[in-house]
Write a structure and sequence with these properties.
Helix content is 33%, strand content 25%. The chain is of the alpha+beta class.
């Protein structure tokens, strides 16, 4: 009897999803561990792999709404492997020797790219075709130089398509339609609910980043050498938010029915944008994390989100959220709350502007900050104090290290 391939459980509250894409065609011979398809839900996108080798048969189409536990494919484990898979070991060894000889004769970069291209997964091939990127020209960051979906996305963001590469629209075709993904539907419903169910207000301030930039410039090389990760701005803001939450604990609360729940921990969510939507993974215990630990955690989450590997536990339980629209050039915005949290900090682009410093006009790297808060729990005085505390810590980062 063929092995049944079922939609796996991806979270307690999730009962269905959309079969996003088949990574293996119907009738293909698959090996154990091969990625078969992606399942898109209202919270995460998960990749399902083959449990054993055999002949694959599709029982559902890409785009179908499927239930958790539903059988969407079968694998005939008794089917004979194709001739190339059952080739004699000698032939395989000969091919390996030939490949080694070619790689040795080729430049190092070309050899690495050739190896990576030979090991490109079906998921990466699909993503490359969708983004119009040649995976053989991408330097992979995966194991043994393999190209990942995250590498493809990064390459596609850097690429600027020419006019000639954009296919002309069909004659008379002025619009097109596609089904809204479960994740986008969930985002839409949650944002609308926040607007309708909370008394949200936003207060603004600006911060001078001169001292942080000077610190990063002075210690960046030593930081990277020791921790193998770059020192970014986000770790400073995470630490500043923790300090502000400790100073103004009213922001570290949430409403549960007719009760106010006071949090005594500091799990901070950091918003990450992907082509599938916005994810907010949570950094746990930020009051105990070092700057390096914060930067490594953010980098790891960003890679997981862009590779479609992020899971529900990664995004649950945060007490406050930081979002950075500045990476896209936003000068000023009003972020929307991430319920049940009662506060979210919006960072924006850094601009050099003339400011008054001790009676003199100087050009400083300035950033606008926005704090959106739930007025049902937080008064204006507390919100302004919270944002002013963040400003003070960011402008004087040494104060955090000295605990003054």
């Amino acid at each position: 009897m063929p092995l049944e391939v079922k939609v796996p459980t991806v979270g307690e509250s999730i009962t269905s999803g959309i079969l996003g894409v088949w990574n293996k065609p119907d009738g293909a011979y698959v090996k154990a561990g091969d990625p078969l398809f992606e399942i898109e839900t209202d919270k995460v996108t998960s990749e399902v792999v083959a449990e054993s080798a055999g002949l694959l048969k599709h029982l559902a189409k890409a785009g179908d709404t499927v239930q958790i536990g539903q059988v969407v494919a079968s694998i005939d484990e008794k089917a004979a492997a194709p001739a190339e898979a059952a080739a004699p070991a000698a032939k395989e060894n000969g091919a390996k020797k030939e490949a080694s000889r070619v790689e040795a004769a080729a430049p190092v970069g070309a050899a690495a790219r050739g190896k990576a291209a030979a090991e490109i997964s079906p998921a990466v091939r699909y993503q490359s075709a969708e983004k119009g990127v040649d995976p053989s020209k991408i330097d992979g960051t995966g194991k043994d130089g393999r190209v990942t979906k995250g590498d493809v996305l990064t390459a596609s963001e850097k690429a600027v398509p020419s006019v000639a590469s954009v296919p002309p629209a069909a004659k008379g075709e002025r619009t097109s339609r596609k089904k809204m993904s479960p994740l986008r539907q969930k985002i839409a419903s949650r944002l609308l609910a926040v607007q309708q169910e909370t008394a949200h207000l936003t207060t603004f301030n600006e911060v001078d980043l001169s001292n942080i930039i000077a610190l990063r410039t002075k210690f960046q090389d030593r930081f990277v050498k020791k921790h193998e990760v770059k020192l970014g701005f986000m770790s400073f803001f995470v630490k500043a938010v923790v300090h502000a939450l400790q100073t103004v604990p009213a922001i570290n609360t949430r409403i549960d029915g007719d009760e106010i729940v006071q949090n005594h921990f500091y799990d901070i969510g950091c918003a990450i944008s992907t082509d599938k939507g916005l994810f907010v993974p949570v950094l746990r215990g930020c009051d105990t994390l070092s700057f390096a630990a914060v930067e490594k955690a953010i980098a790891a989450y960003a890679k997981k989100a862009r590779d479609g590997k992020i899971q529900l536990p990664d995004m649950e339980g945060g007490v406050f959220t930081i979002t950075n629209g500045g990476v896209f050039g936003s000068l000023l915005s009003t972020p929307i709350l991430n319920p049940p949290q009662c506060g979210i900090l919006g960072m924006h682009t850094i601009q050099e502007r003339p400011v008054a410093v001790q009676g003199r006009v100087e050009i400083r790297p300035m950033m606008y900050l926005a704090l959106t808060y739930d007025h049902r729990l937080v008064d204006g005085k507390e919100a302004v104090t919270f944002l002013a505390t963040i400003k003070e810590v960011v402008e004087n980062p040494a104060a955090v290290l000295l605990e003054v």
